[in-house]
Design brief:
Strand content: 15-25%
Mean pLDDT: 88
Largest sheet: 4 strands, mixed
Radius of gyration: 24 Å
Number of helices: 6
Helix content: 25-40%
Order of helices and strands: HEEEEHHEEHHHEEEEE
Length: 291
């Protein structure tokens, strides 16, 4: 009887351990599946820019005589890992945001003949066929508010530049080759082409940045978080710079559908007052890792 009791105990503990192992395996499976699902969602909407150094700025002493003094000095910057939107925010998403914030819409957006969003019967909506075209004529305040509404933020100027050029010194997001209309919307006249001067935000894969972001040259100028200061690179911190503490205008990057190649360079710094509305203004968002 004594040995029979020990044998029964052995069988019970064996089954218990086996059940426990399978239970733990089950928990791990659903946890990993959930994580993978989240990562997959992030990867669909955003691209990961890993931490590390990159070269920021442009040496204006060159044969082409390209570059402006506010792009100097060339300097190395360390950035923590972050996500940035794979695509510019489109007319469909921004229309929904405006309809949820109608009382503040006049601060965020202005309608017009060359704008991908229209207002009819007090509702904002994309123009016919332009759902996935970049939202445009948006103030910095509108871009900033939208990003925060989706638990993201505007990228810093340094984050935008690294996402556009990578860790090297690419002249354009795809490399150093001169722009062409299969890589970016380039020297297109809106008064002739209308909205065909732009492209859908997920188009032109040949023009993607090293991390897979579309239209970081052309389509619309993109607001970033930083205040503009022409001499900022002379005093910029070498790690995770956030721009000057104050200013009168905000930085935009990436050129637009009409501008020439000079302005589409990954290092070119444009700026405008945060409350103005122009047809070429758009944006994309960023997000901290592990948000």
């Amino acid at each position: 009887m004594k040995y029979k009791f020990y044998f029964i105990q052995f069988i019970f503990y064996t089954k218990f351990i086996s059940f426990y192992r399978y239970f733990i395996l089950f928990l791990l499976t659903i946890t990993v599946s959930g994580c993978l699902s989240y990562v997959s969602k992030i990867n669909d909407e955003m691209v990961l820019v890993p931490e590390g150094l990159f070269i920021m700025g442009f040496n204006i002493d060159n044969i082409e005589e390209w570059g402006d003094t506010d792009e100097e000095p060339v300097h190395k910057i360390f950035l923590k890992s972050y996500y940035i939107d794979r695509y510019e925010v489109n007319a469909s998403k921004f229309s929904k945001f405006l309809n949820l914030h109608k009382n503040k819409a006049p601060l965020y957006f202005e309608t017009g003949s060359g704008v991908t969003i229209e207002k009819i019967d007090n509702l904002f909506r994309p123009r016919l066929g332009l759902n996935n075209y970049p939202a445009n004529r948006i103030s910095w305040y509108g871009a900033n508010a939208y990003c925060r509404s989706v638990n993201k933020r505007l990228p810093t100027e340094a984050e935008w530049e690294k996402a556009a050029r990578g860790t090297g010194a690419r002249l354009f997001p795809w490399g150093d080759e001169f722009p062409s209309n299969n890589r970016a919307t380039f020297r297109r006249k809106f008064n002739i082409l209308g909205f065909k001067a732009l492209e859908s935000v997920d188009s032109m894969p040949k023009g993607r940045s090293p991390y897979g972001a579309h239209h970081m040259a052309g389509n619309v100028w993109e607001w970033v978080n930083d205040w503009y200061q022409d001499s900022y690179y002379e005093v910029s911190p070498s790690s995770n710079p956030k721009g000057p503490e104050s200013g009168t205008s905000k930085v935009l990057r990436g050129g637009n559908w009409y501008y020439k190649a000079y302005y589409m360079r990954t290092t070119y710094r444009f700026n405008d007052k945060p409350d103005v509305f122009k047809n070429w203004q758009g944006f994309r968002c960023a997000q901290n890792l592990g948000h």
